[in-house]
């Protein structure tokens, strides 16, 4: 068996094993340096990616939190009204009527928009006193019953 069956390169038998050994020895000797170079390149890539990420995050502006409207918060109420004045057995409308009668006398107040009565009614029905909405099914369609629970 010949290493070069064609016979045109007989020196390959002489030089090939020593070249392979020399190349292997060089690679083995250079392995720590190659490993260090690979680590340096990886660290540089990580630093660059972190830099790009921070620039991207800085450029992205967080959306402003939308403000709740007065209708959603429903915290606007006259100063003379407090939770202790509520009667748990009455509806929001009846409670608002009683509070206005106690403050201004029976019928001496208005029910229109932006009146104290309206503010009290909305504070009771929409405000923080509203605790739960119960969904019931009557057999034909879904009905929503508004339950106002006072603490």
Structural account:
With 151 residues, this protein is mainly α. The protein folds into 2 domains: 51 residues; 74 residues, no CATH class. Helix content is 50%, strand content 8%. The chain contains 4 helices and 2 strands, in the order ααααββ. It has a two-stranded antiparallel sheet. α3 runs antiparallel to α4. The chain is rod-shaped and about 125 Å long. The termini are far apart. About 7% of the residues have low confidence.
Summarize this structure briefly.
Helices cover 50% and strands 8% of the residues.
Structure keywords:
4 helices, two-stranded antiparallel ribbon, 151 residues, 2 domains
Order of helices and strands: HHHHEE
Number of helical stretches of at least 4 residues: 4
| Biggest beta-sheet profile | 2 strands, antiparallel
Shape: rod-shaped
Helix content: 40-55%
What's the layout of helices and strands?
Layout: H1 12-59, H2 70-73, H3 92-104, H4 116-126, E1 132-137, E2 142-147
Antiparallel strand pairs: 1-2
Helix pairs in contact: 3-4
């Amino acid at each position: 068996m010949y290493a070069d069956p064609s016979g045109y390169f007989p020196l390959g038998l002489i030089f090939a094993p020593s070249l392979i050994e020399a190349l292997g020895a060089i690679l083995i000797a250079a392995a720590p340096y190659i490993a260090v170079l690979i680590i340096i390149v990886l660290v540089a890539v990580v630093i660059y990616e972190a830099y790009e990420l921070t620039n991207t995050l800085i450029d992205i502006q967080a959306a402003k939190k939308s403000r709740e409207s007065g209708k959603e918060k429903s915290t606007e109420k006259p100063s003379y009204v407090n939770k202790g004045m509520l009667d748990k057995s009455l509806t929001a409308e009846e409670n608002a009527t009683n509070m206005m009668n106690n403050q201004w006398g029976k019928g001496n107040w208005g029910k229109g928009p932006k009146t104290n009565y309206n503010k009290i009614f909305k504070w009771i029905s929409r405000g923080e006193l509203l605790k739960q909405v119960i969904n019931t099914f009557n057999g034909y369609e879904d009905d929503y019953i508004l339950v106002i629970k006072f603490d």
